[in-house]
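Exercise (ungraded).
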Amino acid sequence: MNVERLEFLVGEEKGLREILLDSDVMPLLKGVLAAGAGGARLVDQEGVELWGAALPEGRGELLDRFPLFLEGEEVARLELHGDQEQRERLHPVGRLLTVALDTVIRNNLKRILTTEIHTSVVNSSQEELMRINAELAQSEARYRELAGNLELRVKERTAELKRAQAHLLQQEKMAGIGQLAAGVAHEINNPLGFIISNLHTLQKYVSRFCAMLQFYRDHLDLDLPVKVLSAEADQKWRELKLQQVVGDVGDLMSQSLAGAERVSRIVADLKGFSHVDDAGDMPVDLNEELERTLGVLSHTLAGRAEIVKDLQPLPSISCQPQLPGQIFLNLIQNALTHAGAAPRITLSSCFDGERIRFSIADNGKGVPASLRGQIFEPFFTTLPVGSGTGMGLTVVWEAVLKLQGSIAVADAPGGGAEFMITIPVGKG
Amino acid sequence: MIEYSEKERRMVLKLVYYGPALSGKTTNLLQLHEQLTRQGRGELMVLDTTGDRTIYFDLLPFFLTAPSGLKIKVKVYTVPGQVCHDATRKAVLQRADGIAFIADSKPAEAQNNFASFDNLERNLLVVGLDIDAVPLVIQFNKRDLPDAIPEEELRRAWGPTGIPVMMASALHGEGVAETFRTLAGLVYDRIDARFDLSSGHGLTRDMFVRQLSSLHGGEEE
């Protein structure tokens, strides 16, 4: 910023011309003329006239000289001209004029010095203000920058949190699938166990059949009488306990087949539940998905929880087919976790012409009204640290949101919690 | 230096009497004016504008002429000591050739002395003067006070700075001329080489100091 300003140096030397004005000097010089002098002038040390006044008819002879001082230094002199006869009379007039000029010089100098100092002070005060102003502008700019950065930082942190949350949601889904896989493994292991055991037994039985067949082949060559052969064969048959074996084989075979069919059915259920083969949106019947979820949870539920179903026919909706499974799986697992010693889970669905409504209720302690705003938030859990991730209901919330639906929690009739899901049915 | 003109054979120097409020700076100038001969010094100008105390200082000019004809004018200023007049102090301090720091010997003023000296150091920096190079003397004034801080103590405190410390009682005219002479000598030392005062103008240190501070009744009269 370029501010035009007056520069003074306190104490800078000044000439008489800078200190005295024409209007200060001329009236005094003219006054001397009026008093009878022919001329009066101020000349500097080099004899150059600074100011002068003279009568039109000529100033006459130089009569007198008076030195003039500035800051104690002789800087000029007053010269009086006129007739020699007037010399005596004009001397006091000259003295008087010198005193007057001296006073004017002194007062003007004081005024100028005052102005100098004042200007310096004002300038430095202004500089100070300018500096403060600049500093303020600078700090304002810094705060602006900080504020701008802050917004950016908040955005970054938010994105980071979102990523972390998405990651956790994915983990929760994986954890759910892990639990499911453990249950399913158990479910498959059971039939596999007895199938393998049956196969071992059948292997032993087959070797006995082979031994029996070998006996007949060996004895046919000997050409023994039929009676003898028959008796020896009977004995061998008894030795190999083939009577029981024949009776057992049929059961073993049918049992093993039934087991294999069970495994096959479980795998089919699982595939249906996870929709591993399906990509993109497709028509989904939510009742079917619920049944499928109950199917994969059957080992967990069997003998442990009472399931009450009241499912009305529903129109199919178009969605990613794995979403309903995530909703039902997490809500049923949640109900099982929070229901008491004898869990009863009531599942119902209905369609009012526009919306599908699902209700999953348990007979646990219910959700206190004060917590209802929080239970769908990530990491919120009432379970001890390490027992729950606090993500189960968040997964449900996300999935319901993807179905353009909503979820709410209320007290179930007769106690416990009731989760109500409303899903709009599209034009399709 | 305010002015130096080779052509006009003229040099104008500026000395500043600095120090805390009411330490006796103006009294020093009044005494100098009183003690020094009329020849060689000008009139004391006291600028004391009532109503605006920010503008307040004294000026006493001195004159001397070197054998070469070089005219030297020394303008001695005082500055207001009050803390609030810092801008005036800075303005007067510009281009100073020497500084007499007038301190108060009253024990109660010790803190103010230090604060004012600190202010001087800061302002010298602001106006672009080097505290280590600028001629500087310290005068402890009011030695006549019964409770004045003992001289040994003052010398112990200020001696290590290497700055000449003078004792004075300005009100009684004691130590005033000595302080001025000491400062004048230091100023001469500082400018001699640069302006060929002794070699070019035939002006020795002794002549410079004596001409500036010839007392009434001295041989210069």
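Further reading is listed at the end of the chapter. For now, observe: Residues 59 and 152 of chain A are 89 Å apart (CA to CA). Residues 16-136 of chain A form a domain with the Beta-Lactamase fold (CATH 3.30.450).
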